[in-house]
Backbone:
């Protein structure tokens, strides 16, 4: 929708510059917004305010000049007026909306070349293989995959990566937890580690080892076969869960490889050479003051174990060396400070950290019957993604995880998720698609040909409910582009809910198949366009568009 108006406005600005009415030699970005109050128009531009400084003129006077230079040979504008300090409000004509609606039947509808082939690495999930994926991991997974889908749909070359954290203290605790459970099967009394993992899955791994090896692993260290077996078994479960969610990865990066390849030692040496790392009380520290961090950070603990930020610095250096134009990290809110440490260290080492973009998400509260379900991986008091999928299904899980902006807390209401009514936003949107499919089947049974824009008499779509649907359909491409720019897939969710709402309102107030062939053709085309757009939007979210419900 905005592209058409952008062309008119750009032409007006260039004409004004060429004629000497404007002194500027370059055009500012042409941003448009949809006014909250429809009386202010369909789209508004602040370009006059943006030009005020370089033109050394009042924005309102600039806006008047711009409006005077607008040429509209195709009659796309009903009017353009000036409001406030210099806003230009555009009221679009019925011809404009007809053009937008007709475009939807094209094969290239919705195509946006925002990325122009830029390479993007999206790293997400990256859960330690210490237990099943919980609902918090589930939000990460769905958010990362939806971002990747958005970027793919807008002309980016996307690679999905899982950072496989198979080193460090938590993995040692995992191995020790399995070892103790194994020894208990041999009737040995062994103290369970205070911070060990207590889930049933630990006992199952121990049983599998006992079934295969008998008592021959009695003297095996925790970091040996116990850790290896746990890592393999748990990650196989993680992969199976991700597959159930419709999520795949193009690459896996093992943290162990950073140690084996010497990158950990190399990055630590590099930080020392730049006087950014120092030794104190048996530990190695990152100097915070020169990095603007306020205080020093531990890189290697006095125990000799690296803190998370050290391998993360090495990993991001490795990623930056792979030729990507953009690196996206999907991280929980508890990783904000650590991620800034990584960026600060790499910036000090002269790396281009502007290529690194973090998408931070808040945590998930799962409720049942209005009561919060407690979650703790180590105590085994948690709900897994698999349990969630079993209870409400993939579509609901994916849609619900995207119903809030990433940096907002998400309450996942299981009671609402299981409802098959208009109260459930997934059902509400999917039913719009199913309703369209039903209409098209009815039309076919009545011998009415498939709707096409050329023969649909779109000018007859003048009822307020019809116009509301048309205007929302025209916003689809802009919504996808804006969501991709901001890395915010929830914008697509909100859009689909709004579109479904307007379509249901239209359907409930107007017959689609009528005695008037022209009106029937127009309304069938409108419904068909809604079905196509809803299906495209749901696909971006990884959610199905059923034809019957």
Residues:
């Amino acid at each position: 929708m905005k592209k058409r108006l952008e062309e008119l406005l750009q032409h007006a600005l260039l004409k004004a510059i060429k004629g000497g009415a404007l002194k500027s030699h370059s055009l500012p970005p042409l941003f448009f917004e949809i006014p909250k109050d429809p009386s202010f128009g369909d789209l508004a531009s602040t370009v006059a305010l943006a030009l005020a400084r370089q033109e050394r003129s009042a924005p309102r006077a600039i806006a008047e000049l711009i409006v005077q230079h607008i040429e509209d040979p195709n009659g796309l504008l009903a009017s353009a007026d000036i409001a406030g300090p210099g806003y230009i409000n555009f009221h679009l004509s019925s011809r404009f909306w007809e053009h937008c609606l007709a475009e939807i039947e094209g094969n290239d509808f919705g195509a946006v070349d925002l990325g122009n082939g830029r390479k993007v690495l999206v790293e997400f999930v990256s859960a330690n293989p210490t237990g099943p994926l919980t609902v918090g991991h589930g939000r990460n997974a769905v958010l990362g995959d939806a971002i990747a889908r958005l970027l793919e749909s807008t002309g980016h070359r996307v690679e999905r990566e899982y950072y496989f954290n198979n080193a460090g203290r938590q993995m040692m605790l995992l191995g020790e937890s399995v070892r103790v459970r194994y020894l208990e099967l041999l009737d040995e009394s062994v103290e369970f580690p205070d911070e060990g993992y207590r889930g049933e899955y630990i006992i199952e791994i121990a049983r599998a080892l006992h079934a295969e090896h008998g008592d021959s692993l009695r003297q095996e260290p925790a970091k040996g076969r116990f850790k290896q077996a746990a890592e393999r078994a748990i990650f196989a479960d993680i992969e199976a869960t991700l597959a159930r969610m419709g999520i795949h990865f193009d690459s896996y990066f093992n943290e162990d490889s950073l140690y084996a390849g010497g990158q950990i030692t190399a990055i630590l040496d590099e930080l020392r050479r730049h006087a950014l790392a120092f030794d104190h009380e048996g530990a190695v520290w990152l100097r915070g003051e020169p990095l603007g961090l306020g205080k020093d950070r531990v890189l290697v603990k006095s125990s000799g174990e690296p803190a998370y930020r050290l391998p993360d610095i090495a990993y991001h250096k490795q990623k930056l060396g792979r030729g990507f134009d953009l690196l996206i990290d999907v991280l929980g809110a508890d990783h904000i400070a650590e991620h800034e440490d990584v960026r600060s260290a790499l910036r000090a080492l002269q790396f281009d950290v502007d290529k690194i973009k973090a998408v931070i998400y808040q945590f998930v509260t799962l409720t049942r019957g209005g009561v919060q379900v407690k979650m703790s991986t180590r105590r085994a008091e948690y709900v897994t993604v698999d349990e969630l999928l079993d209870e409400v299904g993939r579509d609901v899980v994916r849609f619900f995880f995207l119903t809030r902006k990433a940096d907002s807390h998400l309450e996942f209401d299981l009671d609402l998720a299981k409802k098959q009514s208009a109260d459930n936003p997934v059902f509400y949107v999917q039913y719009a698609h199913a309703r369209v499919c039903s209409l098209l089947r009815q039309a076919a049974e009545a011998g009415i040909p498939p709707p096409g824009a050329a023969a649909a008499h779109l000018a007859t779509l003048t009822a307020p409910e019809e116009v509301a649907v048309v205007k929302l359909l025209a916003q689809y491409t802009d919504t996808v582009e804006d969501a991709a720019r901001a890395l915010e897939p929830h914008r697509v969710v909100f859009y689909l809910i709004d579109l479904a709402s307007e379509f249901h309102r239209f359907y409930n107030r107007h017959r689609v198949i009528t005695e008037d062939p022209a009106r029937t053709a127009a309304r069938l085309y409108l419904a068909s366009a809604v079905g196509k757009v809803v299906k495209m939007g749901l696909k971006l979210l990884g959610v199905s568009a059923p034809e019957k419900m």
Q: What stands out?
A: The chain has a mean pLDDT of 93. The chain is about 50% helix and 15% strand.
